[in-house]
């Protein structure tokens, strides 16, 4: 996928990266909506890709031809199949290829679909100019200096990896790519490759902070980590700092070409208590009463009043929940909590009576 971030635009085409967790029904719907002409499918997802094409073939409302299927092997080799193979395609390609530059800086470079946090995925068109500007802005804002080593835990299908698929190349960096990751893998790769930068949703930070001691390794260098998607709890901030990470909280949307806003860190904040530093970087929802939805760990018990009292001890009182609901948390295909479902549940609970 990293190669295709460069190859597809250089061929004069538009890149459309799909979530690897989508099922065949969703893939076929997005292929139809995007009017895709070529579908690259990694061998581990070949069955999903074939099922999606079968869905398209049986769709009487689709007037477009089926996209050409090109397979990509797990190990970078070739797949013996009836389909076109990625490595063979590259090997047989003519060497005298001329880059097809965009005719206009506003021509599209990518079509990205949102993760569907509040509804079905929406298609967002990125222009060459917009992607270029935000790539530079992301590198500057998060102190991505020359020759960084970047660990990929942010999927490249998520707003082009927050523009860093292009940004790391721009800075002459090294990419450490993972198929799947755990806290142990993250610590191992940081230690092995001397990772300087990485990104991740708050769930990734939570996984790192709560990693068993046996899975942890000392950081060989200071690691800058970008996080977004939801506000991080204060204990996660302090836990990451204790491990040696520098956390950058960013805000953005797929619709804003990824990262768009950052709360710039002020030097005078360095000496403040952890809770106060966290408060200064968090967005604060005004006029609403917090309601906590809690999923307890296995073999752990807690009561509503214990949760509320704990939060009041650790947080500013306006941030402490007034109600607690113990339940499984609904997730999107990218692992983000579906907050709109939780809001609906909270709204159905009605207003709290002030006592």
UniProtKB/TrEMBL annotation:
Q: Describe the location of the AMP-binding enzyme C-terminal domain by residue ranges.
A: 285-336
| Entries under InterPro entries matching the protein | AMP-bd_C (IPR025110), AMP-bd_C_sf (IPR045851), AMP-dep_synth/lig_dom (IPR000873), ANL_N_sf (IPR042099)
Q: Which GO terms describe its molecular function?
A: ligase activity
Q: Which UniProt keywords apply?
A: Ligase
Q: Where is the AMP-dependent synthetase/ligase domain?
A: 1-271
Q: Name one Pfam family in it.
A: AMP-binding
Where does the source fall among the domains of life? Eukaryota
State the similarity comment: Belongs to the ATP-dependent AMP-binding enzyme family.
| Name the record gives this protein | Medium-chain-fatty-acid--CoA ligase
Question: In which organism is this protein found?
Answer: Triticum urartu
